Amino acid sequence: MGCQWSLNRAVVPAPQGWTSSSASFGRTDEVDMTTQFEKLVSAILSLAAVAIASTLIHREFFAKTPPGSLRRHSEYVDSWHSMLDSARFLGERNAPITVIEFTDFECPFCRRFHKALTTARAKYPSQLAVAIVHFPLPGHDHARPAARAAECAAAQGRFTQAVDILFESQDSLGHKTWTSFAKQFGVADTVAFGECMADSTSDRMIRAGLALGQSDDVNATPTVLLNGWRFGMTPTDTEFVRAIGDIIAGRKPYKGFPARALPQGTH
Fold first, then answer.
1. Is the bond preceding residue 222 a cis peptide, omega within 30 degrees?
2. Tens digits of per-residue pLDDT, 179-233?
3. 83 half-sphere exposure, CB direction, 13 A CA radius
4. Which residue segments constitute the domains of the chain, with CATH numbers given?
5. pLDDT-based confidence at 91, cuts 50/70/90?
6. Which of 21-30, 82-91, 140-149, 200-209 is predicted least confidently?
7. Under 8 Å between Cβ of 218 and 167
8. Secondary structure class of 11 (helix, strand, coil)
9. Strand 4-5 and strand 10-11: pairing?
10. What's the CA gap between 139 and 41, in Å, rounded?
11. What is the DSSP string of 33-95?
């Protein structure tokens, strides 16, 4: 006769020759062991829950240094207008204020900054132009295909919609088909979209963005310029909207921001 293992405890039969009182003592001892075992399991589960929660919090807030937060000094870039040749615009092109963003669709910090861009565009619809420069990082497997999907959507006039949806659905990259994304983008011809995705020549703007970023020492995403002012770190939502408001009002948002970067007629 052996031990019988149940879900909650091990049941050990009393040896022959035991009296009822001995058996009763054995059962009491068994209950004590069960209680201790259950307490141990409970403690282990509690520690595991804390460990998992700590890991998730660390990944969200303290994981490897955010690409967009690699510190460098802010500065004005005289040649910023030439960057626009390698960019695609979200909506308005001819506006007094231009934001250039080097972006990666798989970068969570780019997704976060895109929310700030969306807020700013809604607040200043006719005063803000947003230029997107593709800069997919090598460690992100889905970033370059996502950039190509945006380019293939642009071929059918759906670039802005593609950018919005790619960031909104970032967690679905690699899990959903590109045809499914195309339908979300609202492209009219999904067959042409599929052919575009299979054509390496669709990467022209992606290659241009990568070359531009490398020549201008871009090593992180998002890298953001505001009328030529290159932020050393990704600006917070509040700082970004405030800086735009200052420029619209004809005020220099930062020390060192040149007067020539303010819109004409505001200084």
1. yes
2. 999 999 999 999 999 999 999 999 999 999 999 999 999 989 999 999 999 999 9
3. 33
4. 4-62 (no CATH), 68-261 (3.40.30.10)
5. confident
6. 21-30
7. no
8. strand
9. antiparallel
10. 39
11. HHHHHHHHHHHHHHHHHHHHHHHHHIIIIISSPPGGG-----EE-TTHHHHGGG-EEES--S-
Listed in sequence order, the residues at least 6 apart from 168 whose beta carbon sits closer than 8 Å to its beta carbon are none
For residue 216, CA distances in Å to 131, 136, 149 come to 16, 15, 25
Can you tell me the distance from the alpha carbon of 262 to that of 250, in angstroms, rounded to the nearest whole number?
Answer: 6
- Residue 139 corresponds to which tokens in the numbers above? 């460690």
What b-and-e string marks burial along 173-212, b requiring 16 or more CB atoms within 10 Å of the CB? beeeebeebbebbebeebeebbebbeeeebbebbeebbeb
Q: Report residue 84 as tokens.
A: 């626009």
Structure tokens at 178: 């590109």
Q: How confident is the model at residue 92 (pLDDT cuts 50, 70, 90)?
A: confident
Q: Tally the residues of the chain.
A: 267
> Do residues 56 and 62 touch, judged by C-beta distance below 8 A?
no
Q: Which residues of the chain form beta strands (DSSP E)?
A: 4-5, 10-11, 75-76, 88-90, 97-103, 128-134, 223-226, 229-230
Any bridge partners for residue 225, and if so which?
A: 100, 230
